[in-house]
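Worked example

This section walks through a single chain of length 207. The input is the sequence exactly as stored; nothing has been trimmed or padded.
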Amino acid sequence: MTPEDLITRHTDIWHNATHHPFLDAIRNGTLDPNIFATWLIQDYFFVFDELSCLARLLARAPREGQHILVSGLAALEAEACWFEEHAKEKGLTFDLPRYPAALAYRDFFLSLDQQPYPIAITAIWAVERAYLNSWMNTMPCQPRYRAYAEHWANKEFAQFVDELARITTQALTTGKFDDTAEAAFLNVARLEHGFWQMAWTEGEEQA
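Given that input, the structure is written out below as tokens.
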């Protein structure tokens, strides 16, 4: 099994993970700023939860996976700084609690500590591939949110995701973990949809 096989097998679930009215409104430039602010703050928490997960995974990763995980850690640290700069520009504070969808993602990342490396790296690939596909679906983006869309819908991020796919394919070569890796993939897809929905509904209540 390869990572691409998982997307092919579960096209409807993957579509729900990477398409949402939130993303449509980003593309059209019609997303309410309160909804976007809700997403930005919760996604900042997500970045740190994934960074911690990758740091722990690096410690037990095989040699061929270490380089891409190190680059992922560096990218996530830079991402946190990027979020902080944009939050400051918008007058937002991160002194807020995680919403349930963000807590669910945090718990999922923590659960990967108990999973064999092939399952954990499949999950990380799925997280990043979902993020890439979601933001690619916002293009071409209207000016209001274009800087955000272009920050993730770009060639460099796509290359990183391709490298994750490569090491994930290597990890799944034996076929021993196919079923549990598929379950992790499906879990990520559901968490992704839930995260977009969380921003959409919670932000709308504050609009």
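What to look for: The CA atoms of residues 42 and 167 lie 29 Å apart.
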